[in-house]
Design goal:
InterPro entries (chain C): BPD_transp_1_N (IPR045621), MetI-like (IPR000515), MetI-like_sf (IPR035906)
Structural class of chain B: alpha+beta
Number of strands of chain A: 0
Number of helices of chain A: 12
Radius of gyration of chain B: 24 Å
Number of domains of chain B: 4
CATH class of chain A: Mainly Alpha
Helix content of chain A: over 70%
Largest sheet of chain B: 7 strands, mixed
Chains: A mainly alpha (294), B alpha+beta (566), C mainly alpha (311)
Strand content of chain B: 15-25%
Helix content of chain B: 25-40%
Protein name (chain C): ABC transporter permease
Oligomer: heterotrimer
Shape of chain B: globular
Pfam families (chain C): BPD_transp_1, BPD_transp_1_N
CATH topology of chain A: MetI-like fold
Distance between the termini of chain B: 52 Å
Number of strands of chain B: 22
Keywords (chain C): Cell membrane, Membrane, Transmembrane, Transmembrane helix, Transport
Subcellular location (chain C): Cell membrane
Radius of gyration of chain A: 22 Å
Strand order of the largest sheet of chain B: 8-9-10-1-11-20-12
Largest sheet of chain A: none
CATH architecture of the largest domain in chain B: Roll
Strand content of chain A: under 5%
Shape of chain A: elongated
Number of helices of chain B: 17
CATH superfamily of chain A: MetI-like
CATH class of the largest domain in chain B: Alpha Beta
CATH topology of the largest domain in chain B: Dipeptide-binding Protein, domain 3
Amino acid sequence: MSADTLASGNAMPLRASRGYWSGVWLRLRRDPVSMACLTVLVLIILASAFAPLIAPGDPSVGSVARRLRPVGTPGYILGTDELGRDMLTRLLFGGRMSLTMGILPVALALLIGGTLGTIAGFVGGLTNAIIMRAADILFAFPSVLLAVAIAGALGAGFVNSLVALTVVLIPPLIRVSESATTQVRSLDFVEAARASGAGAFTIIRVHILGNIMGPVLVYASSLLSVAIIMAAGLSFIGLGARPPTPEWGLMLNTLRNSIYSQPLIAALPGVMIFIVSLSFNLLSDGLRSAMDVK
Amino acid sequence: MARKVLITLWMGTTQDRKEGNKKMTALRRKFRTSLLRPALMSTAAIAMLVGLSAPTLAGGTLRIAMTASDIPLPNGQTDQGAEGMRFMGYTVFDALVGYDLSSPDKPVTLIPGLATEWSVDPADTTKWTFKLRPGVKFHDGSDFNAEAVVWNLAKILDKDAPQYDERQAAQGRGRIPSIATYKVVDDMTVEITTKAPEALIPYQMAWIVMSSPAQWEKVGKNWDEFLKAPSGTGPFKVESYVPRERAVLVPNTEYWDKDRISTLDKLVLMPVADPSARVAALRSGQVDWIEAPPSDSIESLRGAGFEITSNVYPHVWPWHFSLLEGSPWTDIRVRKAANLAIDRAGMKELLGGMMVEAKGMVPPTSNWFGNPEFEVKYDPEAAKALLAEAGVSSEKPISVKAIISPSGGGQMEPMLMNELIQQNLAEVGINVEFDVRDWNALLANWRAGAKDPGTAGATVTNSSYFSQDPFTALIRHVDSTLIPPNGTNWGYYSDPEMDALIDQVRNEFDPEKQVKVIQTMHEKFVDEALFLFVAHDVAPRAMTSKVKGFVHPQNWFADLTSVTVE
Amino acid sequence: MPVYILKRVAYAVPVALAVSMICFLLVHLAPGDPLSLVLPADANQTTIDATKAKYGLDQPLPAQYFLWLTNVVSGDFGTSIATGRPVVSEIANALTYSLLLALIASVLGLVVGTLLGTVAGYWNGTAIDKIASAVAISGVSLPHYWLGIVLVVIFSVNLNWLPAMGAGESWSAERLKFMVLPAITLAAMPAGIITRSVRALVADTLGKEFVTALEARGLTQTQIFLHVVKNAAPTAIAVIGVQLGYLMAGSILVETVFSWPGTGLLLNTAILQRDIPLLQGTILVLALIFVALNLLVDIVQPMFDPRMKRG
């Protein structure tokens, strides 16, 4: 989807001290844009997580008698959808699915891709060649196409689109962590640790991970926005969540038919996707400059 | 003598139509001759004066956005379901038996098409004779005759015939399951025999349209080539056909039914599967007519000055119950309770008024409806009482799984409607879980039956049914000999009493007596609450106010020849 | 130079093969019997037997792959379940539409992105930069399928300026009107991406020593600007090349919203109808185009960059 985030992946700063992270946090805190985005995201995530507690209604119960009420109707602050279900409730519950489908694949890909990339970078040789060529092959597919191909073949559903998105996000993370590891590996302090007889596991844990964590995390954070848009997009074309599950992409699709009668309501799920994706992008930018990652 | 009587009875409907229509036809003809002709001539004159070379018919260009994702194949027995037949099947081609689509006010009946009359041999009720219409020509100029009819039947029934076409066979074979043999008697007479007595043959033959054998020969005996230069006998000719994009049809000015010669310049068909895109296309003036506008758009379309037309037609949108052991629906009290739990009036509102509340398999206005004892209505208290009797309550609810589809021909707005049913049933103590499948996948399971492993524990399938004739409306769902894989009795219903009624229908060649049997059968459907009767579609379509002369009949099909665009 | 090109081509071949392997496996990834996935439900025994033999469905996977690849190389991508037409003709038809749309969207994205990016980078840190960057990040964050819907409502339905859907009747200037909205929708994201890349690039180059050196040598601002552009060109080419590929492949949502009869709409139809042969064929073709575009970028890029040419 987004070529600069997915296709390029070279990031290599070298800092490992304890004070580094607190420094990053300090710098991030001084950036008003990042803090605003962070606040918005935390609020949306918390609101979605606690949707059953705070939502005014039931996301699956509606009444035909009160369908497509405009925004601002008493009792239905954000109006009601095509089945008379409360939009605010649907958006909150929808956030659970949309955010999960955006964040979880990035987390999984970070875990899998990061591990594979670190191993490839650390071990080198044939292992490196095998892992990297495999990543290259997946890379040869444009990301949306690969996601659509996998989800399309597997069929619609939450798990299937989760798998599809994760597979799409793994190769770039392999690349980033591999190149970061390769750089760190040849540095003096790693050589020194090796010479002092430290085991491979200790070296990876203490020296490598400490040093590559920053750039890899920054990179992964930049994928969040892409993943959110892509996940909602899969649902939009019927490959992700299924009705009556509230999900922003799916809501956008089912509300399309109401766009002439209630344009504002029909636009709401899109606005949510935009806000979350924008916040993730800006926060990622802030994190990048706070970490001084190019 | 008996034979003579029979002919008049079958033709009875025809006579009715002719009487009822004479006025209209006469009016139309008068209109044409008195107003249109001079208008035509003057436009032509003006066109010549200003130097325009293309002569126009002044009927304008009608652009239609269909719900299909592809242009129906112009090979004859077209694809894309009933919509394909509506826009490509019955425009470019004709069947031996036609439908009277001229009135919005009465149920559609069969009328002569390429056959002027048909009859069954009273001595051997498996033998039918069709007299063909003389003087009819295909678009390529070749003659339509008995040879052509036999050739077309072999096209879909005889695997060894050189013109056998797998694609058309797949579409047409299932429509004429009872035909055994067919032969030329003379140039204008065809004889068809059935495997067993089958009084419904005229209904079945109305589905089978005639492609031109001469044209097929001319293009090298190749159906793919035929698609590039199709030829039928219908009121429209194919001018151009681009798969997935558009088909341009022009009137067949030599059409055999002089009252049905279109004055349009062009009829353009476009496949626009996405409902919102159809609405946008209509509103931005890219098309003049869209099929199935989504219910949420109807009010705003009306507000914006578009015409919304609709009409009841033989169609039912039910939940088809599995009656296999272990299914909660084997208990008639549960079936009745479900029927009493559905707020059909609320659903109608949800669909912008675009449905008829179902009280049985056929609309209450149908003459097959009969007089059932059980009244299908919204009464959740009665539903709860019935369920309590059956040992069900909100503390001890039943759980059922229903196979549904997100879209599909005749499925109306399945997600919306099913979500409402889910809510309604939950209120009386029936919890519903959905198994959403693609329309084709749902149909595949519908053919495989409730016992198929692919049913995966579901006890309901939600396929909507076209119910033009007694077989498609009733018999195929409940005939014990049609339990899969032999037929489409999905729920494994089996009742000797019902089977006896079916036998009577097939052997009853007197239409009036036949209707009586069908009524008894339908009463049994309702009294046993064999289906969850939900809705009848009204085939909504939206068009600009420039579209004139369209009659929305009580049918899936429609006559496009009367339409003009200002 | 020829050696370099040969090397790149030699590297692209195994990648293309691997891509085809993944596309081949899609049919086996899908739940259900492969045979039932590539044939209509009511196929007769003759067709079933013929298909079995054609794809060697009773043979081991590698043999099946080889058979399938042989078919593909000879231009036989199978038959669409839904239409019964050869998949290859369906794709060929749609490809022209997608290519044209992607090309226009790329150019649009490039022009807008380069302008905004250059301006933002050149006046790094000023209000102009902030506005340009805000526009850019919005472009990157917008769900484009939603943007498309909004554009249709405004420009087709309310203002009645532009068509809402489809591609018009024939290949003429008239068709451009149909392309405006889809192209803008499709270009939003690359425009944002290119703005961000170009901005960083320009700002970066401006800070480089050679610019200070040029200034010291007394070159005018315009001359320095041209110099900067020249230095940024190779990267820009890479970005555009890759974007074109992404747009070709990524237009599924936009083409669906606008019913643009390209490969994206074809993919969407294939998914809706579970037309696996069509899905497989379309993905294969798009992925191979993507591989080819990457190869092209790899070959063309050094021609604009003296440093890389030497290396």
